[in-house]
Structures are given as structure tokens and as C-alpha cells.
Amino acid sequence: MQKTIKKIGKYLLLLLYVLLLLTGMRLALAENRLANYMLFFLILSLGLINLGSYCYFRRRFIRFSDVVCQSTEKILQGHSILQQQNKETLTSKMIMELEKAEDIFSYQLAESRREKSELQKMISELTHQIKNPAANIQMYCEMFADPDISPEEERQFAAVIQQQLAKLGFLLDALVKSSRLEKDMINLQMENSRIVETLALAVNNVIQKAEQKKIEIAVSCRPAIQVYHDMKWTAEAIENILDNAVKYTPENGKVGISVEAGEMYTVIKITDTGKGIEAAHSNDIFKRFYREKSSSKEEGLGLGLYLARNIITLQGGYLSVHSSLGKGSSFSVCLPNRMFQQSIS
User: Fold this and answer.
1) Taking a C-beta distance cutoff of 8 angstroms, is the pair 274, 295 a contact?
2) Is the pTM of this model over 0.70?
3) How many CA atoms lie within 13 A of 92 on its CB side?
């Protein structure tokens, strides 16, 4: 197409030059009737050539448009345009780019459908599993109404009910997290607030699990540090990271939280003395539904870290991890300061 445009430009320049030359001839030979006739026929010939060129290029453009439209329709139907491949023409290049775009969109659509199918199956399974602990709790509560049960049986029933309540709580928490995977479920209410209050919300929701395993949670944060963020959602993201830290840290372990305010970002570091993560899987842990084979014994669905990264990313921050197998992990939650946040919004 560029070569064609250059040819047209050269042709128009040549035409303009000829017209100027003929105009000069017309002025010089104004009294020569034969010269006037010749000039008239030359101008007429050039006009016809110009009209013919316009019709020719218009016809080529229409043919080009028809080929592109037909090829696009075939590509959308899943057919490959073999006759246009490996040709040094504009049509071939456009069709090849359209095929690449169609491949990308097809892959994204297939991934979206697969993830949606997995999500629907998981929610259906969770809904079904919720019925079992609920039925067990109801049954043991009815047993408590029996006046002939012994104190030992009461303790056993109470332990079973507590166990079933914990299972029910896990299933309901998983169901809530699953629902938040849908689009537009995370509505941020950004404000400049103290990060220590956000940390308190997150720690309070995992402190009981930590105490059961005798895990110490230490927080180091200056009360004056303020960050432009959504307190509720950021607390949930940090809670998900802390929940993983407590889950995979053995008894009598330690979990540390420290906050450092930088020029552009405020960094929240969460470290643990757990089993650590293999370097090959350091990026996989943030994928939806991902769980390591070595973690199959622990309860979980592989959603916590995926949601945490999404929440932090939506606020203009990022989440990263540094870990060594057998030496624990260190997660860094980086939130942009208010001044930087305003500059990018």
C-alpha cells in the first residue's frame, strides 16, 4: 500500500508539472489555433487518465476490503485462510494479524469458561458439604436434650459440635471467598487512614488460630504511619497472608509483621518460620485454585493469595514473596502513598 501511495504521489506531481508546462505553452502560443487544439486534447487526455486511475485504485480498494471482510468472517468461524499465508502483501499481513488476534481471544475465552466452570463446581460442592456439619450439629444438639446423658457424654458431644462448627466456618469462609472471584465484587472505598488499625483488623481474625498452635505474632508499626487505602479490603488481603503463615508454620513458630514508609510506597512485610516455598512455585501460589501437592493435607481451596494480590493490585500496589524451602517465607505488600496515588489517578 505504501508503494502504491508513492506511485500516486509521483503521478500527481508529474501531472501538475505537465499542466504548468502546458499552461506556459498556451500563453506563448495563444494565437496559434492548432496549438490550442493540441493543448485541449492533451488536457482532455490527462483528465481521462486521471479518471481512469481513480476508478482503477477505487476498484482495487473495494476488492481489498471485500477480501478482508470475507477473511475476517471465515476466521471468526474458526477457518484458516491458507491462500493468504506467507505472502508479501498488505492483505496477507492484515489477515495474519487477525488470525493472531482470534487465537488470543479464543484462548482467553476458553480460559474464562474453564475458570467459570471450576468455580461453579466448587460452589456447588461447598453448598453440598455445608449440609453435613449442619445436620451433625442439629443431631448432637437434640442429644443434649436427653436428660439421661452422662457428663462424659456431654463433653464428647460438645467437642464434636465444636469440631463441626469449625468445619462449617471454614466452608462458609470458602464460599464467601469464592463469590468474591466474580467481577465488580470488590468495591474500594479509599481513604487516608492509619495502617496500624488495618493490621489490627487482620490480626484479630487469625489470633485464635495462632494461639491454638502457640505461634507468636509480633507487630512492628509506628502508629503515625498513614496510607491511602481501603481499610476493610486491605485487612482481608493481609488476613489471607497471615492465615497461610499460621497454617503452614509449625507449633511454637513465629510470624512477624513490620511496616516501613518509603517515598513512594509503604511496605508491609509479613514473615514466618514455616516450611517455605520452592523457588519454582513462587509465582504459582498467586494463581487461582493453586495448591502445592505437599499442602493437600491442610484445608484450603487455593483462593486466599489470589484474592490478596487482586485486592492490592486494584489499589495500585503489588504483592511479592521471597522464600526458601525449610526457612520460611517473607511476603511484601506494597501500597502507594497518597501523593503517588494522586499522581497516577
Assistant:
1) no
2) no
3) 8
Alpha carbon distance 176, 65 (integer Å): 51
Domain ranges for the chain: 2-79, 104-179, 191-344
Which of these, 340, 341, 305, lies nearest to 190 by C-alpha position? 341
Each residue's pLDDT tens digit, 35-44 = 566 666 766 7
C-beta separation of 175 from 167 below 8 A: no
Tell me which residue has cell 506556459.
24
| Model confidence pLDDT, tens digit, residues 54-92 | 778 788 778 777 777 777 777 667 666 655 555 666 667
In sequence order, the 6+-apart residues with CB closer than 8 A to the CB of 298 are: 247, 248
Residues of the chain with pLDDT under 70: 1-40, 42-43, 75-76, 78-91, 118-119, 122-123, 125-129, 174-175, 177-185, 289-301, 338-345
Are the folds of 104-179 and 191-344 the same? no
Inter-axis angle of helices 2-28 and 33-76, nearest 10 = 170
Backbone φ and ψ for 88, nearest 5 degrees, come out as -90, 60
Q: For the domain bounded by 191-344, which CATH number is listed?
A: 3.30.565.10
Dihedral (Cα; 277, 283, 287, 291), 10-degree rounding: -20
Distance, CA of 214 to CA of 332 (rounded, Å): 24
Rounded distance between C-alpha atoms, residue 65 and residue 252, angstroms? 72
Q: Using CA atoms, how far apart are residues 234 and 336, in angstroms rounded to an integer? A: 13
Cell of 130: 455445608
Cell representation of residue 262: 518509603
One CATH from 1.10.287, 3.90.75, 1.10.150, 1.25.40 for 104-179: 1.10.287
Q: How far is CA 25 from CA 174, 177, 286, in A?
A: 91, 86, 80
Round to whole Å and give the CA distance between 306 and 289: 8
Taken as a whole, the chain contains a residue count of 345
- Give the count of beta carbons closer than 10 Å to the beta carbon of residue 249: 20
